[in-house]
Amino acid sequence: MKRCIKWIFIALIIGIFTSFISKNKPTGGLAIGNEAPDFHLRSYMDGYADITLSSLKGKYVLLSFWAGYDASSRMLNANLNNVLRAASTDDVALVSVSFDEYASIFQEAVRGDSLAPHATFVDTRGASSKLFKTYRLGQGFTNYLLDADGVIVAKNITPAQLSAFLEGTERFS
Asked: What is the pTM assigned to this prediction?
């Protein structure tokens, strides 16, 4: 009996430790090769400007989804903003979308992170918004690089990959 309890205890310990190991789960969202669904947003920074994704067809678009309460997505968004600003290029349009439920928190994040106000938008419905659900962000925030036809050519790109893409040393297909 003691031997049986010992093995059950060992199996339980192994089960506990392996449950904390990161699994290769999909990061959610849409896949490379999908056409990015169109949406309409209003900016709360520059005179309430409107934007639709379809209005940007014909150029590359970097969609960056984030929220002020998610430190890693906010930091990545700020870094991607900085790469595009430093490159001073019109080859890639940035559409930075926050899912903060309060416009005041969003506005403070834009100011604090020195984001480009003309390219930064908010959906104050947060995780219950249609956009959040359409892009399947329930498993985590992500970013997408779209080609001129609105097709996703890269996902979860880093600032280094974006910089290499802008310099022409990295291509996504």
From this structure: 0.79
